[in-house]
Amino acid sequence: MYYLDYEKAITSYLSQTITELALISPNHSKLPKGFIYTFLCRVKMEVKIGHTFNMCLMKENMEDKGSILIGKRNGNLNEFSVLQSTLYELGHEEKMLEGYYNYSNILIRHLNLLGWPIGDLGKLRIQKRM
């Protein structure tokens, strides 16, 4: 069927909505800054996304569990909340409400479209296609 057309329509509409929400939010500038991040656990094939104020502590904790840091950038908790709800609407279910998602190329593509830090995962996927 026309799955790619549906996906493009949904993601463009959601991206526009997310941008508008960020601009309208009156408390956007007052929110405390932190880090938004992406970890990959290769053993379980899971992706953990989240927000933290102390990146060093989070990195040590996740590396002890066997995960590697894929990407991080400055951001706030509002961005993370909007991303979680958007991923749910796109059909990606969160495991145990802790920010863990099953790894898939579609998830990585959606994270890339939504501007989430995914590091080299997006580049590797594109190189495989060529």
Question: How would you portray this structure in words?
Answer:
The chain has 130 residues and is an alpha+beta fold. The chain contains 5 helices and 4 strands; from the N terminus they run αββαβαβαα. Strands 3-1-2-4 form a 4-stranded antiparallel sheet. The protein is globular and about 45 Å long. The two termini are 24 Å apart.
Give a nutshell description of this structure:
The protein has helices at 3-24, 55-64, 77-89, 105-113, 120-129, and strands spanning 34-41, 46-52, 67-75, 100-102. By secondary structure, it is an alpha+beta fold.
List the helices and strands and how they pair.
Blueprint: H1 3-24, E1 34-41, E2 46-52, H2 55-64, E3 67-75, H3 77-89, E4 100-102, H4 105-113, H5 120-129
Antiparallel strand pairs: 1-2, 1-3, 2-4
In N-to-C order, the SSE pattern is: HEEHEHEHH
Q: Give the number of domains.
A: 1
Query: What is the multimeric organization of the chains shown?
Result: single chain
Beta-strand percent range: 15-25%
How many helical elements?
Answer: 5
Characterize the overall form.
Answer: globular
- Average pLDDT, all residues: 80
Could you give the order of strands across the largest sheet?
Answer: 3-1-2-4
Low-confidence segments: 125-130
Task: Write down the Rg.
Answer: 15 Å
The major sheet is characterized as: 4 strands, antiparallel
DSSP strand count: 4
Q: Can you give the helix content as a percent range? A: 40-55%
Q: What is the terminal separation in angstroms? A: 24 Å
Structural class: alpha+beta
